[in-house]
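Weekly puzzle thread! Below is a chain. First person to post its structure in token form gets bragging rights.
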Amino acid sequence: MNGERDLVLHKPTVVPEMPSALSNLHNRLRSGICATARHGELRIMVFPSYVDTHGRPRIKKSLTTWNLANAVGLLHLRELTAREGVGLEAAFDRPDLPPVDLDDPQHEKPLQHALFFPATDDETPVIAFVRFRIVPVLRHVGWLSSDAD
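Winning reply:
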């Protein structure tokens, strides 16, 4: 009704024994997709997940571009933004926000980032959801190695 779509990880009725951080991931880390002011363009917020001290997945909404690159991986951000019509920008157009530049990520002012992509692109939001929400939790529980490995 409001033009927004969601990507949601659902938990099957029967799941094998798994670490609590992973079993707590289901249906917690929704990622909204909404239209932008530019015709034919959508955006997904870039809120990377982390696991808190109680084993619950959480999201970090406001980061410097440098911190975002460290949390998600600069290579992965560059791969996403290399896709046709995809760009990483500040989520909101405010004059006091620094530019989002992956060649020179700023480390002075935290902001909310968003990935902008063509409305016809069904792959980018899924890749972004996996990269920003699921992969950090899988790394935390040791089911994926770090990028450095």
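Puzzle host: Confirmed. Bonus trivia for everyone else. The radius of gyration is 16 Å.
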